[in-house]
Design brief:
The chain is of the alpha/beta class and about 400 residues long. It contains 13 helices and 14 strands. It has a six-stranded parallel beta sheet, with helices on both faces. Helix 7 links the parallel strand 9 and strand 10. The longest helix is centred in the last third of the chain and has 34 residues.
Length: about 400
């Protein structure tokens, strides 16, 4: 097949970019040719003989709102000019003003806006007003993009529900969970000294954006106050402009919370802790949650996190309310006080991750491509025969 993938970035160290990166690798291994219409692509892909990289220049317009619209306009114009060169056109959400065969839904702004935890208010400030306008515009654009794609591929059942809420029929929706590198994220010897973590305490890990309330570190900190003093927390994420160091100090947790800032070697950090906590107030399908499962960590998460749906009974703890610090504290203490229970959860988590490898994910995307291509071929063949008959 001749495949076109349209995205902003295709590389390993990016969430959505990693998904597309793995799809490209699988497509090349299967003998397909791939064109990447993107702003940036990994050098090892660009240099491959079966890859064509069409770079879309980054706009210098002010605000991401205008920059993304310019990107979508440029991509749409290119696709319309070259559509007949491809058997499958794969886009990611709203990224181009053009029809597509496959649209991978990694995030649905309508779901985020309606989830109950959306933090912005139109009349609160200029910044809030901009965020609301940005979200509402994305909602309209995503509706258009989903309605102009043959198949929508949500990254979780949670996202699938949000796609259907936009009026998309069930028959056009095929869920494919994101993948994880089960060879890279694996249990192993801890390296706490490398991350300036104390050796003795039971160590939780929280990883995510520390500038937004959506990831819900505040509830984790309030839960930590309710746990014994020998339970500590490592926090991985960019600290610049984060309000959480001040909150840690106000709660009297300075000796128990260890900020690592951005960590490039997340597998080593995960091997150095005892459990992973991820009570995100809204999450389509967090890669970091899958990575924790693969690392064999007992995981505590919540139903508002899309990744929670892959956790079967006995392979993790899934709480109902992301804001319930008391329930979170009980779950944390259960793990800290019962090492055999924590160990069983970790082993089961690792088994779950084994069913969610990047290879499994990529092969499922290729299967969708083949279905789309087969349907397109079956539609075009009668038309071609009719044209040939008319000419005779």
């Amino acid at each position: 097949m001749r495949i076109l993938i349209v995205t902003h970035v295709v590389r390993k160290n990016d969430g959505q970019g990693r998904v597309n990166y793995e799809i490209v690798l699988a497509a090349l291994a299967a003998g397909h040719s791939v064109t990447l219409l993107a702003a940036e692509a990994a050098p090892e892909l660009v240099q491959h003989s079966q890859v064509r990289f069409v770079q879309v220049p980054t706009s210098r317009l002010p605000t991401k709102l205008l920059q993304y619209q310019m990107f979508a306009w440029r991509c749409g114009a290119w696709i319309r000019a070259h559509r007949n060169e491809f058997d499958v056109v794969h886009v990611n959400g709203f990224i181009a003003w053009a029809r597509a065969d496959v649209n991978a839904a990694h995030f649905v702004h309508h779901g985020w806006y309606r989830c109950g935890f959306y933090p912005f208010r139109l009349l609160h400030s200029l910044y809030h007003a901009y965020q609301v306008i940005y979200t509402l515009l994305n909602i309209a654009c995503e509706k258009w993009a989903f309605r102009h794609a043959e198949v929508i591929v949500p990254v979780s059942q949670k996202v699938a529900g949000e796609v259907r809420a936009l009026g998309i029929g069930e028959a056009r929706v095929q869920v494919i969970h994101n993948g994880v590198d089960t060879g890279e994220f694996t249990p192993g010897a801890p390296e706490r000294a490398r991350f300036n973590l104390p050796q003795a305490p039971f160590m939780l890990l929280f990883a995510g954006d520390l500038r937004m309330s959506r990831k819900n570190l505040d509830t984790v900190l309030h839960a930590l106050v309710r746990t014994p003093p020998d339970v500590h927390l490592a926090v991985a994420g960019i600290l610049h402009n984060s309000p959480y160091p001040a909150l840690v100090e106000s709660l009297g947790l300075t000796q128990r919370v260890h900020f690592t800032d951005m960590v490039m070697d997340m597998p080593a950090l995960m091997r150095s802790v005892d459990a992973f906590v991820f009570p995100s107030r809204y999450e389509p399908m967090g890669l970091v949650l899958l990575e924790a499962l693969s690392a064999g960590l007992p995981v505590i998460t919540v139903r508002t996190a899309g990744g929670a749906e892959v956790i079967a009974r006995g392979s993790g703890i899934v709480l109902d309310d992301p804001n319930d610090a008391a329930a979170l504290a009980v779950a944390i203490e259960h793990l800290a006080r019962e090492p055999d229970y924590a160990r069983r959860l970790g082993l089961a988590a690792r088994a779950v991750a084994g069913t969610l490898s990047w290879q499994v994910m990529a092969e499922r995307y290729l299967s969708v491509y083949e279905q789309v291509h087969a349907r397109r071929t079956s539609r075009e063949l009668p038309a071609a025969c009719a044209t040939a008959s008319a000419e005779l």
